[in-house]
Structure formats: C-alpha cells, structure tokens
C-alpha cells in the first residue's frame, strides 16, 4: 500500500536503493475515489518470505506452519489474513499498529480468530510488548512500512495534499500532538532542516519561510497551496508539496527512528531460522533496511573500513534478498510502484547488543 504512481517499478539507483519514490501520491494516484480501498502490496511474496518459502503452497491446509509470527504494521490486515491462512491452529500472530482505526479492524479479526493478539503501539515497542505477552522468540516478522491507503484517502487525517482536512498527520491520534502544533512554534531554520532531511526537498529554506508566514495551520489544502506557490521547480506528474508533506509526516511520527529501533530489536526477537521481511516505499527507509542487512548478514560495517585490522563481526542474518512487485501488480496497483521487499533469515549466532 502507500505510495503511488503509474507504470513499471522504479529502476534501482546506482547504490541499489529504490528511486526517490515518495510515500505521498502524485496528483493522478491521489485523484482516485476516496473509498477506503486497500490494495496490499507484495502480498504473496511477503507472506511466503516470512514463512521461509519460495512461493506459497496452492493448498495451504496441507502444510500450515506452527510458531509465533508478527505483523508489525497491521493496517487493514491484508498481509495478516493471508498469513493466517497458512498458519496452523496452534500458531500465534501478534499484530501491531499505531493507528486506532487499524486496531479496530484488528479487534474485529481477533474476535473471529483466536490466534490473533493485538498491540496498539509502535513496532519500536516490540521487545517490551512481547515480554508483556510472555513471548521470548518469534519465527517470522513482517512489516509494510509507511502510511496506509485509508490514512491517505481520509482527508481528516491530514496526510493528503489533495483532500482538505486538519493538519494532523499523526498515525496514532490517541497520543502526541498534531504537526500543526509543531508548525506553530518551530522556527523557519528547524523546519527547513526537517523538510530537507526527511523529504530531500532541495528548496526547503524557501518553502519553510513561506510556511512560517502563514496565519494558521488548520487546512491541508491551504498548506499545500502555500508550498506549491513557494516551490520554484515543479516536476511533471508530481505535486510540488509531495516531498514536504512526506517530510512532515515522517518527522511527526518518528518513522525513521522507529524503523531503526525495530530492525535492531528483530535480531534479539527472531529465533534461529526465523525470517524478517520488510516492505519500504521510499529510499530513506529502503537504504536503512539495506544497510542493516549488509551489516548483519555480510559483516559490512562502514566504520570498519578505515581500520587496518577490522574486527570479526557477528553474522546474525543470512540469505538476504530483495524483491520488487511484478509489472502486473504495479499495473493493477499504482501504489506498488515504489515498493521494495527486503529480508533475510536469522542465523544461530547469539545476539550481543552493540554499545
Ligand atoms: C502500509 S500500511 C500496512 C498495510 C497492511 N500490510 C495491510 O495489508 O493492510 C502501514 C500501517 O503501519 C502503521 N504504522 C506505521 N508506522 C508504524 C509503527 N512505527 N508502529 C506501528 N504501526 C505503524 C500505519 O498506521 C499503517 O496502518
């Protein structure tokens, strides 16, 4: 889900990360009707990966897996529901989401399926949440990062620059403050830094000054119009507010910090042979996942490169992989265009936390 656009998947860049695709849709993708449609991206590929299979068996009943699994980003449960079809009656599926609306959907599923447990919190709370549930190790973890289609499609959540609503942008509306409260008090330099760091917006200073000159922050359309006016370099097929909205959303939800914490925690949480499978939708996230897997499966620590005698590093993962959506998936679901699935298998090496 999340993300946007048309035609084929973005080609990898030179460093093998995704092209600078954004979470926020283009005009075209955003112009789809506001029905809360949710097309789960890389559905079969992710579920197969988390089960350690090349592809899903055609007859799940014959070969259902036992064990404990995590869906770190339940959303509307697309990945969870397919995974449950392939899990045995004694398996457990722990689902996380920050969003109260996603949790309400998860509660309806849990009412029908006793294998489902729900955590209304960030996946960055994975260690503590599993402890609270009395679970030490799990056999698979999947995550489908970013915003969901329902979050984007509901203007009142504040994620959309094409639908009017409060300038909120929180995934968890039960905690914290909307981005509008932060915009009220932040100075233009700090705002520009956020637009640059989390949106890779080259015109961040100019846009930040324009935003700070606004009288109020109570309309996403008004905010988008000010950014559009301030942006000197419009690109065809891309709303000029795309990167700024992405930056504000990533910032207020601490998205990158949560991903970093979650990835590190996965090392301690996964049992030997357990699988990690993570879908990302923009290069800021994909780069982090790629570097995490390089570090822990190939022993490539950038800080070791200058050392005459690099230390021997533990290899917590092996068999790292990367999968893009098929062209037919991208054709049917433009939001899949910028998605990458990366993952690996946990080795037997005991986890020793880094300082
Ligand atoms: C891309 S959607 C997931 C869609 C899901 N795979 C499905 O098939 O319906 C991402 C979901 O992750 C949630 N989310 C994002 N960051 C999170 C975090 N740090 N912790 C928990 N949930 C998060 C969002 O609220 C959203 O519901």
UniProtKB/TrEMBL annotation:
EC number(s) stated in the UniProt entry for this protein: 2.1.1.199
Localization: Cytoplasm
Catalysis performed (reactions): cytidine(1402) in 16S rRNA + S-adenosyl-L-methionine = N(4)-methylcytidine(1402) in 16S rRNA + S-adenosyl-L-homocysteine + H(+)
Binding site for S-adenosyl-L-methionine: 77-79, 97, 123, 144, 151
The keyword Metal-binding is annotated on this UniProt entry: no
Sequence ranges of Polar residues compositional bias: 1-16
Region annotation Disordered: where it falls in the sequence: 1-31
Keyword tags: Cytoplasm, Methyltransferase, rRNA processing, S-adenosyl-L-methionine, Transferase
The keyword Nucleotidyltransferase is annotated on this UniProt entry: no
Lineage top rank: taxon: Bacteria
Family to which the UniProt record says this protein belongs: Belongs to the methyltransferase superfamily. RsmH family.
UniProt-listed HAMAP family: 16SrRNA_methyltr_H
Function: Specifically methylates the N4 position of cytidine in position 1402 (C1402) of 16S rRNA.
PANTHER family assigned to the protein according to its UniProt record, in alphabetical order: 12S RRNA N4-METHYLCYTIDINE METHYLTRANSFERASE, S-ADENOSYL-METHYLTRANSFERASE MRAW
Protein known as: Ribosomal RNA small subunit methyltransferase H
Naturally occurring in which organism (per UniProt): Psychrobacter aestuarii
